[in-house]
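Recall the central idea of this unit: under ordinary conditions, the amino acid sequence of a chain determines the structure it adopts. In this exercise we apply that idea directly, starting from the sequence alone.
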Amino acid sequence: MLDSPSILTTLFAFFLVLGPLIVVHELGHYLVGRLFGVKADAFAVGFGKELAGWTDRRGTRWKLCALPLGGYVQFAGDMNPASAPGPVDESLTPAERAQIFQFKPLWQRALIVLAGPLTNLLFAVAVFAAFNLAYGRIVASTEVASLAQGSAAQQAGLKVGDRIVAIDGEKVDEFTDIPPLVVPFPNRTVQVAAKRDGREFVVPIRIAEVIMTDRFGNESRIGRLGVGAGKVDIVKVGPVQAVALGFRQSFGIMRMMATGIGQIFSGERSVRELGGPVKIAKYSGEQFSLGWSAFVSFVALISINLAFINLLPIPALDGGHLAFYAAEAVRRRPLGVRSQEWAVRTGIALVLALMVFVTFNDIASLPIFGG
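Accordingly, the structure predicted from this sequence is:
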């Protein structure tokens, strides 16, 4: 087991992860807003008191703030950094109205809001595509080459030479298709379809729960069927294939995140598995100590996390604003300013409460506290 990196290394790596990803996210909002002619009053990395900044010739205040756990673009017409709409000033000229976010068509407002998480997703796709282009794609057949002694698959009757073709009705073409259908579901019984001597059969397999420990001592709860792949090949891919695979990998990670959140709500997983800024900082330092390849992969993973979290339909997050716009599209008129203001305040309170909870959760899981 490796020693944990120093506090200074951890903090440096943490800011190296969050800083660029916050900028990427907010640049998505800012650039699409500019494309549609919306004036940005402020572009902030962090929250709270301004530490440093400057105002550009367009009147946008670019600033670095004291609490580096997020950021925002405050467009003209926003009442606050959470983009709650402010009261309409009837004395505005047509030229001034044309620069205000709330006066833009619904589809433009939706694209401006969607641009943040979408940029985070595209950033991760670009990282994965670059790795795919540089290192190639892992290819392995779904034929069972080995079975762990006493494993769930062996007990269910699978044999070496069987070829897995589907899990719970979802087709698998390569061995790499199997883990996403198994790893998130310890103790769940799945229907595994396989072929033997040209004949297809289906067996129920209860996925085993395994506690994995990484080289730094971090534990994670996964499942395993107990089957091993045979020969693994690395196949070179071209740029188009690399990007397509990058999208597939990114959406696969988002799907696993959605599954994990659903399992927490259903009680299949403990809320203690949720992670916050302390855990991200810890993992940032650990991955940084393993080298740039591991660290950049981790940054891409966090970028997908940011995209996923921001798309949740919680007021004050991007997904909450998109939910407002969906309601507006159905009602043919926007929600009242007062209603949106209260919804955003409630969303902010919910997000802050969640942040406090996961932070205490993270601290309690540290080795110093016996976690």
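The first strand starts at residue 40 and ends at 55.
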